[in-house]
Design goal:
The structure holds three protein chains of three kinds. Chain A is an alpha/beta fold. Chain A is built from twelve helices and twelve strands. Classes of the chains: A alpha/beta, B mainly alpha, C alpha/beta.
């Protein structure tokens, strides 16, 4: 082989990496800027809002919280109790028992005195058959509805709830999430505060509840997770929710709403077709589709994002579960991007097509792959003895320092805006984790992403990795 | 791509550009630097935040007992407690000098206000104002940072500072959403008429959230008399219509049947469904035909609502229609709803087999020409009316953005009464005045366009709300005018807070409301008779209102008959005169009502009115037009109080003082102790308190104070007055020795009030001699101006005895 | 301590409101003990049982509901308990009554109303 040409190719590979890295730096810097502006504005705007007075207003819209439950017998009773004690009047909690194999339904019936009620069902029902609709015979639990249906997966359960609900807004949450009492008030505010655009969906921050003290369905004390993996995830979530989504929200290009806490305008969600049952990334896909639907209807709309800590959940504490989770995310990502590939740099979809989609494509999907390729080629070049050490080390150094800086900035915002971890030691610990993250946590995440992509692209089937929960009631 | 290029260019292009590794290292270093910066900031912020919150919490904890003491201070407490209370009062004044303390106090009060209700809440509002904390909030309104403005508005709203109404009202069309929304809430909160003003003048869209909050404010208002909201169903702002519909439903105002039925045909879904909701609520069964007519053009949700309504109000003849729906509709839920509607109308109905074929076609017909079914004779009459009105309205609308002197033309009498009735920002005021002719000036009625069943409702509503650009133009103009007026108002309020003037304010903490309320009662015929004579004058007034800013002054200068521009004080004087006809016209039927010579009397009259009012109207909503229109007026009045006090003493009470003085020479007053340690301001406040607690020994002390030539002039004056009030009280005490403690307390208060009235009245009675005490203050230009007033007053004294008689009668009454 | 004064335990976590009510109640002639959280309440109750308890329903460590059942069951005391509840929390109020609360007052609190209710409960005893 002509070593001259080879060298040139080699150099070009370096240039590609350099360009990609610089592009990332630029994007992240822009994101930092946008999220800063956005957070500052949000703070100023909301520093003196008293929400609690509003909850009983006759104009307050009706909301259905849909919580799909699959084999949750350990925690379901406690979780429902927490959902029923939210500060809001006009809402319904709809638990969809997705054909659990354990005693989930029985536990609910016992705890809440449920009785089966008559409910007419559309003969052309598009979801899995419904076995029964239950309501509580006690007035105290009048807000609770339980749907028992045959197993059809999370999306199908959510769709069932969406169709059976008669309320204006629906909230799709994980049943084991802990919502703070004010959560619905914030959501209603977000839906209602726009006057020029229709708010089709509202998403929120997911906070990590591992090791926090919880009693009686309420968060009593916020603590830093003890588990090292959870700590890394805390750092990751802080970056992603406090900086990332805030920035996307700022330019109205938010493309993902966490499945654990997402609220939708029921009318639009249904007209857009509800959740896709054929993907594991249903929470991302539905936002794509609703946005698309609104674009096609040519209506002014927006997706709102609430940075206040409203929803707390437990994250996986074992590598295996984490890898499964991220693997699933990667596949969902790929499926969604593929399904809507016509949006890619399509100006018909405005910013959605020109900014958000490409970002997801390049950063969320391509980056881990590129990283992987980079690693392989470095090893390969090293083996061949032609590695440009100078360049390699300089690039790694820049990327590393950048990631640290970005993490620190996220911590700074966390401190500035919510300051929830009171101990200085906690903050220092987080910083230390930021320093070692690129060597420890990041490879795990990248590996999961690669695995997910590999599985998807080479058609290896696997179910959705269920996260074994310890359950809040134990904590 | 390089492959397509000619050969000779390939090589240099193929050679990859040299990567500047140094640059990467530099970048890395930069990132480290930034990382370090963030690292430090994290700890900086943490410390700052926690230090701030810790010290604030600490201060709050210190101040909380103080607040409790103030809040629960009862008039019937023991003498020791009163002394303790006074001590605290002095202490607080001292504390208030520090901004941090003011902030802490404000926060405490804001917090408590949320947690407390009933009389305690009232007391918090009063305390907030007593401590002068609202001055800080007013200052915030002046800020250039929108979040600060908004904070100020919030504070004033929460604390129910009625005085802020006119000022805050101007923000309701502010460019910044947050400020705008806060101001809207404030406008509706602070005054019952606020909602009218808001619905009339709101230019922006009203978000759902905002509607929710506004309704919430209304819901929690006590004794709120809602206006007839149907008046706003014809508004051009779609959100105003929507909100009006919701209010109609909430307040169950079932007097707008025709309009509501018409609105079912509105193209906006929300309006449509709200209208249906109202119809259902009020059971307007006439609407069923319309409901059927619009059915096929609606979305699923509205269809369900329609079916619900038809099921509730429909009769047997509607069943056919429902059956046709059951046949034609695809949506399962709609179908089953139709069936349940049939069942609701006639539970045991068996579906008849005949007629089904016909009805199958009916829906299409309806869909094609739904509107035709609606034309009844009643409608057409209404339509004409509406059409006329709309012409009128649009004309007004066109005029609204620009204010030029020609706009002021229509009936000036009305203009004035209106502006009093309904304090608006200048431009609006004039418009409204012209809009309404000489009907009786009932705010609710006149401000609102007439309700009806407009033929063009639909068209009208479909007119787009003025687009951004247009709005912006208007806004700009509004903002300029607003800025000018606002700054003036604010300055006046802030001036008031000056320590020198505070003393004066404490003497007569009264205000002007009655002027407004009494408008209607006085003969309108008389007004008309006087109208011509006053027309010039009123022009002036209007000019005053508008021309409070320099810009407007220029515009108007041609027309100002009294254009006085020589000296500052003279201008002030002149402007006061300009203002006076207002008062006079509204207040009483007097001869020579508009003669300039009466100026001083008219002021007196205002004062008098306030006093009578004070007994019934505590603090809320005191503030009104006058404040805005002519703040100088109030100062003037206060000065009268100041100046007349010593006069009276010299005239009547000199001997009494001496008597008392000899009796109790050896006693020692607790106030003496206070006076030794506190500053002038506190001393003035203490003097206010003395009458409530005081006994003979205090009297002696106060008299000593008054005679002490080393003391400040202001203080001496006040001391003299206090002495005299105290004296009267003591005299009363002796005579009413049989009274119980509580009763006495009341009497004292009345006496206090009465005294002040008397002081004023006597000031008027006395003639040339009144000017003597003024020399003490003669260095102040404003006082000179006041003298001029007095002189005029003297001249016109004889011609106006009648007013005095009635005045004095009331005073006697007050004195018991 | 003046023995003739009725002893009142006030459990309220909002310090500001607590100090205010404390002042008002003292002024009205009660001997008031203040507890800012559930732990303090428990501690106090272990040493003595007051003549009446006024407690917020939402408190850290030990909610008003828990307090009622603690007093009624574990201490087996029938001391009058008045609950302070936030508006819109009807379910909690219901369960408070079920557990044996004697009366309740809603936030925002009117101190005068509280006095009347306290007085009434004490007069029943």
């Amino acid at each position: 082989m002509d070593s001259g040409v080879f060298n040139i190719i080699l150099e070009y590979i370096n240039v590609v990496f350099l360009l990609f890295t610089s592009a990332l730096f630029t994007v992240f810097t822009a994101m930092t800027y946008l999220s800063t502006r956005s957070s500052l504005h949000y703070r100023k705007k909301n520093s003196f809002v008293d929400l609690s007075k509003i909850m009983a207003s006759p104009l307050a819209p009706s909301i259905t919280i849909i919580a799909p439950a699959y084999n949750e017998e350990l925690t379901i009773v406690e979780n429902i109790r927490s959902l029923l004690s939210l500060k809001y009047v006009n809402y319904e909690v709809m638990v969809v028992n997705d054909g659990s194999k354990d005693d989930t339904l029985k536990k609910m019936i016992e705890a809440y005195d449920l009785v089966k009620i008559e409910k007419e069902i559309d003969p052309n029902w598009p979801c899995k058959p419904i076995r029964g609709v239950y309501k509580s015979s006690k007035r105290v639990f009048s807000k609770l509805t339980v749907i028992d249906k045959e197993n059809g997966g999370k999306s199908d359960a959510l769709n069932t709830g969406m169709r059976l609900s008669e309320n204006k807004y629906i909230g799709c949450i994980d049943v084991d999430c802990l919502l703070v009492p004010d959560a619905l008030l914030h959501v209603v505010k977000s839906f209602f505060q726009r006057s020029k655009k229709r708010v089709i969906a509202v998403g929120g921050v997911i906070r990590i509840a591992n090791s926090c003290k919880i009693s009686g369905g309420a968060l009593e004390e916020i603590r830093l997770p003890k588990n090292w993996l959870a700590r890394f995830q805390l750092l990751e979530y802080t970056r992603s929710f406090l900086l990332g989504r805030m920035a996307w929200g700022r330019i109205d290009s938010l493309l993902i709403i966490s499945g654990a806490f997402g609220f939708f305008d029921r009318e639009i969600a249904l007209e857009a077709g509800g959740y896709d049952t054929n993907t594991v990334g249903e929470d991302m896909e539905i936002v794509f589709r609703m946005r698309r639907y609104m674009h096609e209807r040519r209506e002014a709309y927006t997706v709102e994002y609430i940075p206040d800590p409203l929803c707390w959940t437990e994250v996986p504490e074992s590598i295996k579960i984490l890898v499964n989770q991220r693997d699933r995310w990667a596949r969902g990502n790929l499926e969604t991007l593929f399904k809507h590939k016509d949006m890619f740099f399509n100006s018909r979809f405005g910013r959605l097509g020109l900014i958000s989609y490409p970002y997801w494509f390049f950063y969320e999907w391509l980056a881990p792959i590129l990283e992987f390729v980079g690693l392989i080629s470095v090893l390969f070049f090293y083996y061949l003895g032609i590695l440009n050490w100078d360049f390699f080390i300089a690039l790694t150094f820049a990327v590393y320092t950048f990631s640290i800086m970005f993490s620190f900035y996220a911590i700074l915002w966390e401190v500035y805006s919510y300051n929830q971890y009171k101990k200085t030691k906690d903050i220092l610990t987080l910083m230390l984790f930021a320093l070692i993250e690129p060597f420890v946590f990041h490879p795990i995440i990248s590996f999961s992403a690669i695995r997910g992509n590999y599985k998807k692209l080479f058609r290896i089937n696997s179910g959705w990795g269920a996260i074994g929960r310890k359950g809040f009631s134990k904590a | 791509m390089s492959l397509e290029l000619p050969k000779y260019q390939v090589l240099p292009l193929i050679n990859a550009p040299k990567i500047q590794t140094d640059l990467l290292w530099d970048l890395g270093l930069l990132f480290i630097g930034l990382g370090l910066l963030y690292f430090l900031s994290i700890f900086f912020f943490r410390n700052k935040l926690s230090r701030k919150s810790v010290s604030m919490a600490k201060r709050k904890k210190e101040l909380a007992p103080l607040i409790s003491n103030f809040l629960f201070f009862e008039d019937d407490s023991s003498r020791e407690e009163k002394e303790e209370y006074l001590n605290l009062k002095v202490q607080v004044r001292e504390l208030l000098k520090e901004k941090f303390n003011r902030k802490a106090l404000t926060e405490i009060l804001m917090d408590l206000q949320k947690d407390l209700s009933g009389d305690a809440q009232e007391r918090i509002y009063n305390l907030y104002k007593d401590l002068g904390l609202h001055q800080d909030a007013f200052k915030k309104l002046k800020s250039w940072r929108w979040e600060v403005i908004s904070e100020g508005i919030l504070e004033l709203t929460q604390m129910q500072v009625g005085e802020a109404f006119t000022m805050i009202r101007k923000f309701i069309n502010h460019r910044r959403g947050v400020v705008r929304k806060q101001a809207q809430i404030a406008t509706v909160t602070l005054k019952d008429e606020g909602i009218n003003y808001f619905l009339d003048s709101n230019k922006y869209r009203i978000s759902e959230w905002q509607q929710l909050k506004l309704l919430d404010v209304l819901r929690h208002k006590e004794d709120f008399e809602p206006p007839r909201f149907k008046a706003w169903l014809t508004s051009k702002n779609r959100d105003v219509v929507l909100f009006a519909l919701r209010l109609i439903k909430y307040y169950k105002q079932n007097d707008a049947q025709a309009s509501l039925i018409q609105l079912v045909k509105h193209k906006n879904n929300q309006i449509k469904s709200e209208a249906i909701g109202c119809i259902k609520e009020f059971h307007f069964s006439d609407a069923v035909e319309t409901l059927k007519a619009v059915f096929w053009r609606c979305g699923t949700d509205v269809k369900l609502q329609l079916l619900d309504a038809i099921g509730m109000m429909g009769s047997k003849k509607d069943i056919e229609f429902l059956q046709s729906i059951e046949k034609k509709e695809n949506n399962f839920i709609v179908k089953s709803k139709a069936l349940s509607a049939i069942n609701a109308i006639s539970p045991e109905s068996i579906i008849p087999s005949e007629g089904i074929l016909e009805t199958l076609e009916q829906p299409d017909e309806i869909a094609e020409a739904p509107d035709q079914q609606l034309s009844t004779t009643e409608d057409s009459i209404l339509r004409e009316e509406v059409a006329e009105e709309q012409v009128f309205e649009t004309k007004l609308e066109q005029e609204s953005p620009s204010i030029n002197p020609t706009d002021i033309e229509p009936d000036p009498v009305q203009t004035i009464s209106d502006s009093l009735d309904n304090p608006d920002s200048p431009d609006e005021e004039i418009l409204e005045a012209s809009q309404e002719n000489s009907e009786q000036p009932n705010t609710q009625e006149t401000m609102t366009p007439k309700p009806s069943n407009p033929k063009d409702t639909k068209e009208q509503h479909q007119q787009p709300i003025p687009d951004e650009e247009h709005l912006l133009d208007q806004e700009m103009e509004d903002e300029i005018i607003f800025e000018i007026c606002f700054m003036e108002d604010l300055q006046d309020i802030l001036d008031e807070a000056d320590p020198e003037k505070e003393a004066a304010r404490e003497v007569l903490p009264l205000d002007f409301l009655p002027i407004v309320t009494e408008t209607d009662e006085k003969g309108s015929a008389e007004q008309e008779a006087d109208a011509e004579a006053s027309i010039l004058k009123n022009m002036e007034v209007v000019a005053e209102i508008i021309g409070s800013g320099d810009v407007m002054d220029e515009v108007l200068s041609d027309e100002q008959p009294f254009a006085v521009r020589e000296g500052a004080s003279e201008v002030d004087f002149e402007l006061d005169f300009n203002f006076l006809p207002f008062v006079v016209e509204e207040a009483m039927d007097l001869d020579n009502m508009y003669s300039e010579e009466n100026a001083a009397y008219k002021e007196m009259e205002v004062v008098f009115e306030e006093i009578t009012d004070l007994t019934e109207q505590p603090d809320e909503s005191i503030m009104d037009v006058d404040w805005e229109l002519n703040p100088r007026f109030e100062k003037e009045k206060l000065k009268i109080g100041d100046i007349t006090a010593p006069q009276q003493e010299e005239d009547e009470n000199g001997s009494v003082i001496l008597e008392h003085g000899r009796q109790e020479l050896s006693t020692f007053s607790i106030f003496q102790e206070f006076f030794r340690t506190c500053d002038l301001e506190s001393k003035l406040i203490l003097l206010d308190e003395i009458p409530a607690v005081g006994e003979e020994k205090e009297l002696l002390f106060v008299q000593m104070l008054a005679e002490n030539e080393h003391e400040d002039a202001q203080l001496r004056k006040k001391a003299r007055k206090t002495a005299e009030i105290l004296q009267k009280m003591l005299a009363k005490k002796e005579s009413d020795a049989t009274f119980g403690n509580a009763a006495e307390e009341e009497v004292q208060e009345k006496t206090l009030l009465g005294d002040e009235v008397q002081i004023v009245s006597e000031a008027v009675q006395s003639t040339v001699g009144i000017l003597e005490p003024d020399f003490e203050l003669a260095e102040q230009a404003e006082v000179i101006e006041l003298q001029a007033h007095k002189e005029e007053e003297d001249q016109s004294d004889n011609s106006n005895t009648s007013i005095f008689e009635s005045f004095l009668k009331i005073i006697d009454k007050l004195n018991g | 301590m003046d023995i003739s004064k009725p002893r009142l335990l006030l459990a309220e976590d909002d310090e500001l409101l607590a100090s205010l009510l404390h002042f008002r109640l003292e002024k009205a002639g009660y001997s008031v003990k203040l507890a800012n959280d559930g732990r303090a309440v428990k501690e106090f109750l272990s040493s003595e049982i007051p003549d009446i308890i006024v407690s917020d329903i939402m408190m850290p460590y030990f909610s008003g509901i828990e307090l009622i059942s603690y007093v009624r069951k574990e201490l087996a005391s029938q001391v009058p308990i008045i609950i302070i509840s936030t508006a819109g929390n009807e379910e909690n109020v219901l369960s408070a009554f079920e557990l044996g609360a004697n009366d309740f007052i809603a936030k925002p609190v009117s101190p005068s109303e509280l006095l009347v209710r306290v007085g009434r409960e004490l007069s029943k005893v």
